[in-house]
Amino acid sequence: IDLEGLEPATINPGTQILILVIQGYGGDPQDNLTQAQNAGGALGIDATGLGAITEAAKGKAKIQVVTFASSSSDNTKNDIKTTIERFKAVNSGGQVIVVGHSGGGDNVIELVNDNPTVQIDLLITLDTQDPKPFGIDDNNIPSNVKLVINYYQTSEAVGGETVDVLDSKSTNGANILSPGSNHRSIDNDQIGNIISDINNFIQGFDVVGMAKERKQPTYDPRLSGSPDVFGNPGQGSTMNTSGKLKGTVNPKSSR
Length: 255
Known about the structure:
alpha/beta
């Protein structure tokens, strides 16, 4: 686990597997404060969502988890790129896993398309959201990504993107519907499956095939207090909107 909080991250000695988590867009982090633990406030680590990946990795000396806040500028993407390069410089055979929700998924898909030398062993995206009115469509997965699992929802207009593998000989991928989820709840709904995906990958199993075969229940966003991005009166007063509103719509992109 990264304890120093430097931007980009310092690689811990002995790290064999680097896991980078990019949370949903909640506003742009300042330069040199792109790690969620430093960005703070609404951009801080989401303990009930993707933050659970850090908890699951505690005590595993060969695994390092670094969590970033997503951004509409280049600062998060640049820091992720440098972090991966630092890791590969000290461990060329090490494995890189990246998990991105909403704008965080957009950030990493932009990164791998713009930087063919950046290699990702397993990419897990959750409900990426491209602002298509601005001519942006970042759902293509290039050959420098070996495995990709994309979880998406169809309950509201925000998000709902499926990914397209550009070269099936180089990349094995799957799009998996998260029934009943909305854009904000999907990370809470799928976090257990994401951790299983990571563990299956580390153990050398067919992670994409296993994810495709997994049976998905119908999720209820009310259980995680996750209102629709644009509101849904039918969700009732049980919705808790006082907490962090993750997965805010990102109106722009640098790509």
